[in-house]
């Protein structure tokens, strides 16, 4: 199955970064920052065995939706965009296919606090609404993951849901969850 990223010309430069498609050669670089305790605290799959991570990373579907964030040729993070169908009634279901996306990100913590995550996520949103023509984007996180929800707010996403103890964290137990979203018509046009 083709991912919409397949239709774009890569890499995509931003003011300071370069976004590009992930390749198997990115395994080591992503493994390094995804093994850090401050990263593993919040990622969905904190795989600690290298072989398990390699299998997860190299899975065709995962690799297809993964972008690498580079700063001066160094891998400093990754982004994901899962293109999804919107809920729709049967008569209009064809119009709801592949029109929205779920965003995800992981940044090497040693590069935090410099605006790189904000810059990279803004670029991904711009691609999703612009060249890919999606109509809606969403992202979820644990309420306790304040850096993630603050990032969602910085890029203009709207908090749509605060759920109470619906999200199970591997070490902290049941936590509150947050859902954010953004519509294409809410996104500013490029200047």
From TrEMBL:
Alphabetized Gene3D superfamilies for the sequence: 3.40.630.30
Keyword annotations: Transferase
Entry keyword annotation includes Transferase: yes
Domain called N-acetyltransferase: residue spans: 17-185
Signal peptide start and end residues: none
Molecular function terms from GO: acyltransferase activity, transferring groups other than amino-acyl groups
Entry keyword annotation includes Ribosomal protein: no
Protein name in the entry: GNAT family N-acetyltransferase
């Amino acid at each position: 199955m083709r991912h919409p990223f397949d239709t774009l010309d890569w890499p995509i430069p931003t003011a300071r970064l370069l976004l590009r498609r992930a390749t198997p050669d990115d395994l080591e670089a992503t493994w390094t920052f995804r093994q850090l305790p401050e990263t593993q605290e919040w990622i969905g799959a904190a795989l600690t065995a290298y072989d398990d991570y390699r299998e997860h990373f190299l899975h065709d579907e995962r690799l297809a939706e993964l972008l690498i964030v580079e700063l001066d040729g160094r891998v400093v993070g990754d982004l994901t965009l899962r293109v999804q169908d919107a809920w729709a009634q049967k008569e209009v279901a064809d119009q709801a296919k592949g029109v929205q996306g779920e965003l995800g990100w992981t940044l090497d913590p040693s590069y935090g606090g410099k605006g790189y995550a904000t810059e990279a996520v803004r670029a991904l949103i711009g691609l999703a609404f612009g060249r890919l023509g999606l109509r809606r984007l969403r992202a979820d996180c644990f309420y306790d993951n304040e850096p993630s929800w603050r990032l969602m707010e910085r890029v203009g996403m709207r908090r749509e849901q605060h759920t109470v103890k619906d999200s199970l964290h591997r070490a902290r137990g049941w936590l509150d969850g947050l859902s954010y979203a953004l519509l294409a018509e809410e996104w500013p046009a490029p200047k």
